[in-house]
């Protein structure tokens, strides 16, 4: 253990904790995860006033309805969320940056502005918003979990950019009236399904603190699950918004590449443009996802981020039901063929498929080109630089990679893929996308409407929330990267929680593969009990409006 | 000289010529380029009937007005263009594939269909259309100028795809009623501004056959200039639609990447996704460009080509004048700082700038981030595979690279750029795009409307049409790749022709650089006399509607 980097990490961790005002500190000793697994709902509520509970358990749309009209002051709302985020952090380690003072000052400015009678500054007036620690907020550091990035700008010292730049999306939501107040934890490198780094350590799953919150946008998911933030922004390159959203009973959107501005956010291998990372909202309601996307698009981000495509919010697409009165058809995706989803995930899928039918719509089997090929393709893209970027940044402080990162990238960089092979991979990617599109189009002949399948219903993770670094890398089981590879919008919505009395081990199960056998053998309903299970709905590229509308409908149905 | 490949090339060349019906062959001996430099207008008309001239000198929009209503039969129209294309090929070597019989049969089918009273099959009913020889048409070969691709599918034998596949755009325009009838010449590899390959040899500039037609979509440009086709499709990775359009007095559009479907067309380094090639229309009028883009988008190509973005044709954007009555502002781009445009190009620029002012609009100087940096960046992307793809395909027949290809790619492949450096290049590209966007936005404070500059007026080539393989590679002077690098739509429109009596050598000119001195020294008004000069209008990414509308306005102004 290197004294230098571990000391720097510890110092940073304590600085962050030190930014929690004494009045918001929990009584010591904190309960152990073993003694208090679930810290959601009533547990965390005990530390809050009724008024604070009322505010923090209102969704983002409900909040702006009140802050825009002055029914609630921005200051009270932001302060309540700061308080609850402080509690959430003490219970789950979900934050990496705290800037409550700065946020409350901004809220006061917004209130003063509203008091002049000029009206709200925008559709997000007074809305607290949290960001995964890849986004730069003026006045605040960004480490992305790297010890070597402390006191630097993305690893470089003396740039004058330190604490002094704003990512484009941050700038835009601030223009719209939102108030950033904290940044959330993530695995260093962002390339892991387990939210752990040397600075903060593990972010715990608030529903069962013996389990991981998933990742890489895990801090964001745990924070929002505890209602420490009504709306946050994560990133997703292979499932990093969806995996933790499913594990934390929240809504999360992975938009198509180029729909929302990513410009000026930190990232690993930021030039990797084959299966690129995207940013998207995570929230306590489906309509809050809509709020963020619609509001951001009103800023015409295509005039500020060259990667954003000029597609405004299309109100006419934002409806769940076809105007011609035909039934919707959902493609039901059940298994990769390598690993079958475990009992609680199967139950969630069957339950939602039944619900769809009960509501008068159709479900057909989804048998697309192999999702394992999509996963293989994505992993090859993620490693095309030979891990040069990741090992460079780990090397800045000499910190070792976390378990999952080492699993993918080893302990040192290897030979990068030569340019011609990078381009071969691009071609393989394009061919896969075309096959997938052709399959999707071909389902028109199977639906009652004559339209191709409206959306795909799929597991997010075939396993429920699990132990931190289990022997298997559960983040790599292939149920999420296909969405990145076809570049479709995917929305996660909460469905159920693991119940050890229902989701029992199926002793008769015949594994499909050796890996499947291992996954099913490792499953322990006692361990995963209480862990949330979410599913994803996947739509056509750039049709964020439609998948969000469908998720809103599912939220109503499931309420 | 390898007997095998040269014999195969010769055989192919003769087969193509053999597909011209005897009645359409020109009397032998053909006049030499020296004795008959200009073969446009009256020269080529002498071989056509009045009726054929009437048909072939009608633009694509005028044609479909008549073929859709049955005023002209598709058969007569297609046959007239086949005749004129046959003449054009004999005069300039502009074709690489001829399939007149197949086209005329298709035209007859369309006429029969219209006769049943079912109406036209689509907006392009009966419109002849030509394609650069990267596009696959069923029943026809695609060699892309490579000898090694003869009797193969993109260089591979026995795939059963030979003569049996259709590129997506070809499929779509056929669905819309268009009739492909020939494919046009190009440099092998497509990576050259001179249209020459071992099969066809040089395509000559129809206005002055001692000069090049430019490239790489040079066959298409020469064909359309001679009215052998009303509408063609070329491709542009660094200027390949615009450079030959400017040299041949036609209109050409380089759309944004993802606006039109490229899927299923052959290409060099098809996985190169940093500064990618795009396809776009070339035609005898600006409104014909609109016709092709609007019609294609009506097919919802985003449901068939995963790279196409879901942006339909937006009628409300397709107007040249602002609805608020404000004046337009054009950014006038004068020089890269390395090479100053030669006298005829300067005259064209000054003329159009004056015209803009006379029409009551504004012109301001355009001083963007260096276009030379954009050019350097594009060349680095084009060579990131070390020339592996190009040398592999040249090697299939053992043919040597043409002059300009050798200049860029040498005589054998070199070490590809490692994956991490490929991604570094992507980042450099993104940074450049952002700088450019910021500059463009900043011009809002300089315009009378308060909007950023509406479009940029720029040279296409700083030199007019020139000798085939002059000592300098005129295709690399940096006036076109910046448009690819910022991924903007660019429309070329014809302005003037070189006049040796006006565009005299300026003996007092002080060169900016050594290269500039060379360019100006090589300029000979006697040699370039009669060569067309076009300029380009560049708009915001994905705003094809707007730049086309502006080009329509310029066409009217210049008429």
Automatic annotation (TrEMBL), chains A, B:
The keyword Hydrolase applies. It is an enzyme of class 3 (hydrolase). It comes from the Eukaryota. Gene3D superfamilies: Amidase signature (AS) domain (3.90.1300.10). It catalyses: a monocarboxylic acid amide + H2O = a monocarboxylate + NH4(+). Keywords: Hydrolase. The keyword Protease does not apply. Its EC number is 3.5.1.4. PROSITE patterns: AMIDASES. This is amidase.
């Amino acid at each position: 253990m290197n004294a230098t980097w571990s000391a720097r990490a510890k110092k940073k961790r304590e600085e962050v904790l030190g930014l929690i005002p004494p009045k918001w500190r929990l009584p010591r000793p904190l309960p152990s995860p073993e003694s208090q697994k679930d810290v959601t709902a009533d547990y965390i509520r005990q530390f809050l006033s009724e008024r604070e509970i009322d505010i923090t358990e209102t969704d983002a749309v409900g909040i702006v309805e009140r802050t825009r009209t002055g029914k609630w002051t921005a200051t009270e709302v932001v302060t309540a969320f700061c308080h609850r985020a402080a509690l959430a952090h003490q219970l789950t380690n979900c934050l990496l940056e705290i800037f409550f003072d700065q946020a409350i000052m901004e809220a006061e400015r917004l209130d003063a502005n509203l008091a002049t009678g000029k009206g709200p500054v925008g559709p997000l007036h007074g809305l607290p918003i949290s960001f995964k620690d890849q986004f730069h907020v003026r006045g605040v550091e960004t480490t992305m979990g790297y010890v070597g990035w402390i006191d630097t700008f993305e690893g470089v010292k003396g740039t004058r950019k330190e604490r002094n730049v704003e990512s484009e999306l941050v700038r835009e939501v601030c223009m719209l009236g939102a108030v950033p107040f904290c940044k959330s934890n993530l695995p260093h490198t962002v390339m892991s399904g387990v939210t752990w780094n040397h600075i903060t350590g593990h972010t715990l799953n608030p529903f069962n603190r013996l389990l991981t919150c998933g990742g890489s946008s895990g801090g964001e998911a745990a924070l929002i699950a505890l209602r420490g933030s009504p709306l946050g922004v994560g990133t997703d390159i292979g499932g990093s918004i969806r995996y933790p959203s499913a594990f934390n009973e929240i809504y999360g959107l992975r938009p198509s590449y180029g729909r929302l501005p990513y410009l000026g956010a930190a990232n690993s291998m930021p030039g990797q443009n084959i299966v690129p990372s995207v940013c998207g909202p995570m929230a306590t309601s489906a309509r809050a996802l809509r709020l963020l996307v619609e509001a951001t698009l009103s800023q015409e981000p295509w005039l500020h981020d060259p990667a954003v495509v000029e597609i405004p919010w299309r109100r006419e697409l934002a409806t769940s039901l076809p105007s011609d009165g035909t039934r919707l058809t959902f493609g039901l995706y059940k298994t990769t063929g390598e690993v079958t989803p475990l009992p609680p995930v199967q139950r969630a899928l069957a339950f939602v498929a039944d619900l769809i039918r009960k509501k008068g719509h159709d479900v057909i089997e989804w048998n697309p080109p192999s999702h394992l090929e999509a996963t293989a393709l994505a992993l090859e893209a993620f490693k095309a630089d030979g891990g040069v970027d990741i090992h460079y940044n780990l090397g800045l402080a000499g910190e070792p990679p976390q378990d999952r990162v080492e699993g993918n990238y080893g302990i040192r960089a290897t030979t990068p893929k030569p340019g011609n092979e990078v381009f071969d991979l691009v071609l393989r990617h394009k061919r896969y996308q075309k096959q997938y599109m052709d399959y999707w189009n071909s389902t028109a002949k199977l639906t009652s409407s004559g339209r191709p399948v409206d959306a795909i219903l799929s597991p997010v993770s075939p396993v429920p929330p699990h132990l931190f670094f289990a022997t298997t890398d559960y983040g790599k089981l292939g149920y999420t990267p296909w969405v990145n590879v076809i570049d479709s919008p995917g929305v996660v919505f909460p469905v159920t929680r693991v119940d050890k009395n229902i989701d029992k081990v199926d002793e008769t199960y015949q594994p499909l593969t050796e890996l499947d056998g291992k996954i099913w053998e490792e499953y322990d309903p006692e361990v995963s009990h209480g862990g949330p299970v979410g599913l994803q709905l996947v739509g056509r590229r750039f049709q964020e409006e439609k998948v969000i509308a469908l998720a809103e409908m599912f939220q109503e149905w499931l309420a």
